[in-house]
From TrEMBL:
The keyword Methyltransferase does not apply. The lineage of its organism: Eukaryota, Metazoa, Chordata, Craniata, Vertebrata. The gene is Chchd4. It comes from Eurystomus gularis. This is MIA40 protein. GO terms for biological process: mitochondrial respiratory chain complex assembly; protein import into mitochondrial intermembrane space. The keyword Mitochondrion applies. InterPro entries: CHCH (IPR010625), CHCHD4 (IPR039289). Keywords: Disulfide bond, Mitochondrion, Oxidoreductase, Protein transport, Redox-active center, Translocation, Transport.
Amino acid sequence: GKDRIIFATKEDHETPSSAELVADDPDDPYEEQGLILPNGDINWNCPCLGGMASGPCGEQFKSAFSCFHYSTEEIKGSDCVDQFRAMQECMQKYPDLYPQEDENEDKEKSSKDLEATPMEGSAAKEEKGSS
């Protein structure tokens, strides 16, 4: 098919390469495209989606992402709340596949940091005042 095996000798490696790089062919079906295909469609096979388009919530993800991509609202995607809610509800059913604790931990850490900062500041003022 598309692969070719070439054996190189020690002598082959002693001379500089004469290989030429060829520009990517956008029509090559084996060539990975980006997230958006040249025709404007979504490339569901893009590795950048991290497999979200497949799996138990793949259809909900595709529905929400498609809605957002094609949204013409003033606030892009504001017409897609129902699709994103369905995707989130599906993902909550599979916490092992779609972990969400990172988001919650970050919120907890930032709120604890905010709570700790004023206390530290007031404690420092008290120490200065008592000496």
